[in-house]
Amino acid sequence: YPIFHRSDVLAALIADYDSIAVAGTHGKTTTSSLIGYVLLEAGLDPTIIVGGEVDAWEGNARLGQGRFLVAEADESDGSLTKHAPKIGVITNIELDHPDHYQNLSEVIDTFHEFAHQCQILVACLDCDTIAEHFRPTITYSLDPEKGADYTVSEIIYEQGMMKASVWEKGSYLGQMEVKIPGQHNISNALAVVAIGRYLGLEFAVIADAIATFAGAKRRFEHKGEANGITFIDDYAHHPSELLATLAAAKLKVEGKQYQRSIAIFQPHRYSRTTTFLEEFGSAFSSADVVVLTDIYSAGEVNINHVTGQQVAEQVRKHHKNAYYHPELSSLGQFLLEILQPGDLALFLGAGNLNQVIPEMLSLYCEQLAVRV
């Protein structure tokens, strides 16, 4: 039997449909999942292939009978250039995979090739790299001064939900409510509005669907509560993603939902840790307490001999409440000494750190049983 690379199979599927492919360094999974969800709620019965699991279709893929396919297009290995969708989305562009790219210029070249193969390109002008190097067909931005086709005003955080007024080429469309936290998810939702409107959907249909979307797994995913502590699992592993996720957590603390935000972070890949070592140091400014573990290798050889201890040292330059506990096997017991009722505990990283969460929930249950 012939064996095909994942990207070749996806490219063939994209070619067979009126396809919407979502690319970008950050936000691909949430944006593609949300587009798929809106089309599903609008009765268009899309086929969906994304990089995270979504409860609405009980997994990371769905076979529909409609003419649309929504796919997450990954740039990590350069295979993004194989895709030629009808509509392409670029959320942002940064260097995130130094194991494959030498510099940002190589990343830009890959996205350029993808952009040229899209019939319609939708992109975010809030990314300076996109604004400087690309000429999208349809644009969106959180900043009304950037002259994008789709923008927002009056962003507020209220009752656990982000709200914003949405504008289309200067005309008011209505208010949008986003359940998944963080201004970056307002941006992701705005991309979805742009796609929906291009496909002819009424704004009310789009907004109603967005308001009920609970997000993909491992994207600010609520995993449980114990001893008054809320446990969140999030895939953030790049400094920019950490900044965005922890800013969203800070909003919840400022909104009096929680007393403190506790960032528990496992660095992912030696190459990424080496490249962004200094940036990781300043990525936790919004957290009240930071706990760092050793690096998850993802199969890489540690040619630069970088360690989690070095990451911790960088973080301590910017943060007075930073701890280093390298071993996951004893991390649960260590966290018992730090976490307090009212805390929002965020387990961050693309590795296996999230396996500690069920252990923590179990430990608190055992403590409660002993007290009783």
Q: Indicate the low-confidence ranges by residue numbers.
A: none
- Cα shape: globular
The major pleated sheet works out as: 10 strands, mixed
**Considering DSSP H and I runs of 4 or more, what fraction of the residues is helical?**
25-40%
> Within the largest sheet, what's the order of strands?
3-2-4-1-5-6-7-8-9-10
Counted beta strands: 16
Rg, alpha carbons? 21 Å
Enumerate how many helices there are, as a single number: 12
Write up this protein.
With 372 residues, this protein is of the alpha/beta class. It contains 12 helices and 16 strands. The strands form 2 sheets. A 10-stranded mixed sheet has the order 3-2-4-1-5-6-7-8-9-10, with helices on both faces. A 6-stranded mixed sheet has the order 11-12-16-13-14-15, with helices on both faces. It is globular and about 55 Å long. The model has no long low-confidence stretch (mean pLDDT 95).
Helix-strand blueprint:
Elements: H1 6-16, E1 18-23, H2 28-41, E2 47-54, E3 59-62, E4 68-72, E5 87-90, H3 104-116, E6 120-124, H4 128-133, E7 138-141, E8 150-158, E9 161-168, E10 171-178, H5 183-198, H6 203-212, E11 221-226, E12 229-234, H7 239-254, E13 260-265, H8 270-275, H9 277-281, E14 289-292, H10 308-316, E15 322-324, H11 331-338, E16 343-348, H12 356-371
Parallel strand pairs: 1-4, 1-5, 2-4, 5-6, 6-7, 7-8, 12-16, 13-14, 13-16, 14-15
Antiparallel strand pairs: 2-3, 8-9, 9-10, 11-12
Structural descriptors:
12 helices; 6-stranded mixed beta sheet; 10-stranded mixed beta sheet; alpha/beta; 372 residues
